[in-house]
What does this fold into?
Amino acid sequence: MGFKKKQMLGFGLILLFLAILLSFMMFTLNNLKSSMTEIVENRYEKVQASMEIRQLFSRSDREILFAANDANKEERAESLEIINENHSLIESKIAGLSGSLNKAKAKQLLKEFETQYASYSITEAEIIQKIKSGNSSDNLSSLMEDQREKRTKVISTMDEFKDYQEGVMKDTLSNSKQTYEDMIGFIIFAVILSILVISVTVVWMIRSTSKDFQSITKVIKNIDFKNLSVIPRVPVRTTDEIGDIAKSFNEMADSLEIYNQKEKDFTEKISEQNWIQTRVADIATMYQRIVDVEVLADRFITRLAPMMGASIGAFYVKRGEGVDMRFVKLASFAGDGEDSGRREFRLGEGLIGQCALEKKSKIIEDIPEDFQLVTTGLGEVNPKSIVIAPVVFEDEVVAMVELASLEAFTKLQKTFLNQVLDTLGITINNVEGRMEIERLLKESQAQTEELQAQSEELQSQSEEMQAQSEELQTQAEELRMINEQLEERNRETEEKSKELQVAKLNLEKQAEELKLSSKYKSEFMANMSHELRTPLNSILILSEMLSDPNDSKLNEEQQEFARVINSSGQDLLTLINDILDLSKVEVGKLEVVFDEMNLSELPDLLHRNFDHVAKKKNIDFIIEKSKNVPDIFFTDEQRFQQILKNLLSNAFKFTEKGSVSVQIKKADEENVAQWIQTKGASNWVEIKVTDTGIGISKEKQKLIFEAFQQGDGATMRKYGGTGLGLSICREFAKLLGGWVIVDSEEGQGSTFTFFIPSMPEGFKNVGEAIAASPEVAAANHDAAPLGDRGEPDAGMMDEEDRDNVKPFCNKTVLVVDDDHRNIFALKNALKHEGMEILTAENGFECLELLEKGNNIDVILMDIMMPGMDGYETMTRIREQSKFEDLPIIALTAKAMKGDREKCLKAGASDYVSKPLKLDQLLSVLRVWLTN
It folds into this structure.
């Protein structure tokens, strides 16, 4: 029988028994209720009715006696009326009793009472009639005697009827009491019986199910939870729910055993993987700070052999290319002097050479008896297994590893070896790259030292030429005065006229010499710019690449060296630009463009450019602008911003603590007039730059505005700089019609005041805009105003990167340049971006490469090259229709005015001046490659 059926049967029997017991109790209680109802309602009412009849009868009897004996006429009439009413009530009571009687004897007694009462009523009526007739009591004695006899019988019958009803009521009450006692006894018996039946049923249910549960519990207690590979099974004895539980448990045990086996297999695999990963990480950690291949080989074979369980091993590295390529042993493990493996081999020589040729690993298990022995302190032992494995990088074998063991290599050790060798090739390439970079760094340092020496020599030559230029200008002025004197004397005498003519010829000759000297100076400055910018180009590009922490393979110290080289190159470039700026001012060939600018934006512009400097030096930077300063101002905005930049740069450089403040207000013309003429200006602005720095002594305050001058030598050594900044500031201020003055005390800080006029019509004293000297014009063209210098906008670059993912990947660029240093720098920089590089040293080689049908995406064209220069080369390329859309970017270091237009006219797509900024070049390339 099933567990469910047992439960239903047991509880069904209990419920059935309880229902029977309840039904009997309800039946007994109903009988008891009926008996009580009969006692209370029937018997008691009948007795009560008989009592009321007797009372009425007795009252009627008394009224008859009263009426017959003592009553007067009125009282008699009233008594007779009461008698009639009682008679009516008695009849109604009798009628009511006759309808409710259910016992035969009671009916008989009531019948007798009715008969006797009827007889009594007749006698009573006769008496009443005679009383109404006026008879006396004596005349009524016989009737009264008869009435008393009948009354006695009526009362006797009524008492008998009452006694009978009371007896029946007592019997009924006795029966009800007995019924109650029987019911109590039966209930006690039924409860005891119910308890026995329920107990037997529950015991039967518990015993029938606990046996099966105990069997299941016993099996569960016997389970070894630490070893779930073998789980005991529950015997299935029934087909009920407990049997289903046993079957489910057995199925669960089967699943647990299968899962446990899978878990063991998985744990074993994880353990093996952890073993591999731990040792791979150990070896990868060992790679750090290794900058020599021989050190790498020795540490690698020494660490790998014990991990592989090898007793002997050798490590070979590729040397040479082509027919000279060979693999040379750099390190060994547990070797026996020179006998521990071959010193070198070529591709295909022996098994190890064949493995290198096929780029596949090989494991040798069947080793001949006479194979090289593994040497120990006690003797020599034959190895049981040998593994030969290549180290591959970019599908090229760069090294070979050979290991021998006294035991066969396991599958786990083979997997471990493959994973280690996967990263070893990259490491070998990185170490060799570091060695090459270190060699190039040393060469770059040597070039930097040479460049510094050249720069010092050029500076000395520049000073000499400046002195010569001043001397020539003085001579020209003297000649002009002489010429005027000669013209006046020409009117006086013919002889003096001839002398004046001679002097004039001499003057023209000197003027031509002066013009030629100026031309030579301009050419010299342009050539100097080219010769300095050309090597500086490669220095800046390479040092910028080496200092990039994300891409550089150098350690931190070497990256710092590269950053120092890059910073020194930038300083040298700044020095070159400052010299060119000063030179163009001196020769009076600087373009000044007066245009509208917004002074209300000046405070934000200064904050944007110098807040980070103040924060870095932990000093306050304060800007105050008066409300009366006009928002619209007419001047050359680029020169104006350059003056402020130089003044603020000096203030921050010489201020270690305290503050730097800028005060902008409208200047008083009377105050300005003591320094400079104020005619022609619509209004004047006064800008004060105040610092709490080292200050300037009174005797040095004039000196600092001269070229290449600072306060003293100690200042130059401590703070650096060229001494050109303030000189350029004053010269630019003069060109703008303004002036710069200084007020300072040594140790108390300095205040530089910049007076500048608003010139809506321009500065007429400067004259018409004159074409700047070649080198100056180009430098001016490339200069950026304050706040616009620096790298391309980061947001724009990010947008371009999102639109053009890896725009340089698989693109081919042709670099045309006669300077190998530039080629090397550009080649490394562009190769790092994923581009394929082709090179040509002149225009002829460039045209040959294009004719060979190389798939070239863009050309970087140098302008100044021997044989065929960049202009002619670009012209010939554009003459061929198939190259009309090929992007050509012109590169030059000479930076002559008009070079850009000349390059574009010759066929260039774009123009970039040297030294190149790598981000600028990449931005230009990205534009042309994506378009």
Notes: The chain is about 60% helix and 10% strand. The radius of gyration is 66 Å.
